[in-house]
Write a structure and sequence with these properties.
The chain is an all-alpha fold. It contains seven helices and no strands.
């Protein structure tokens, strides 16, 4: 079967993965370098996949990425888009401090909605979801005032 994306490395391109393969690399970059070097030698996708320990689809994807953008795009991931965090470290500290503070009158514990509303009231953020508050509390292993281990353990 004829290869759709043939990998032919120049001398400079061949030297880069060999040098990177010897140094400290993430597992993903290491196997991508191995795939490119083996593909340049003319090995089949199945042989490369067996030797490197990845799927045949991964080998084909690395070949395709090399054909589209040469060495750099084959070895490195593109930057991934993502939203900036709603709460920074200072705001997270305020959430935890508020959760550890005395509960408002008439309530047994702080709820995530109450904490979110309190952050808006204190003008820390314009708006925040309950899920974000719960994620912060989970990171701090908070108990929101209940007995047990957490951000505010009771003696």
């Amino acid at each position: 079967m004829r290869k759709r994306h043939v990998v032919v490395l120049t001398d400079d391109e061949r030297a880069a993965p060999e040098q990177q393969e010897a140094g400290p690399l993430t597992r993903r970059r290491r196997y991508r370098a191995q795939i490119l070097l083996r593909a340049d030698q003319g090995d089949t996708d199945e042989e490369i996949a067996d030797e490197v320990g990845v799927s045949v689809g991964t080998v084909a994807n690395v070949r395709r990425r090399f054909a589209a953008g040469r060495l750099d795009s084959a070895l490195h991931d593109r930057p991934r888009p993502g939203a900036k965090p709603v709460l920074d470290g200072k705001a997270e500290a305020i959430v935890i401090a508020t959760a550890c503070s005395p509960v408002p009158e008439g309530r047994a514990t702080w709820t995530a909605r109450m904490l979110a509303d309190r952050l808006v009231e204190l003008q820390v953020v314009e708006g925040v979801s309950e899920d974000t508050i719960l994620r912060v509390l989970k990171k701090a292993t908070s108990s929101r005032g209940r007995r047990g281990r957490g951000a505010f353990p009771r003696a």
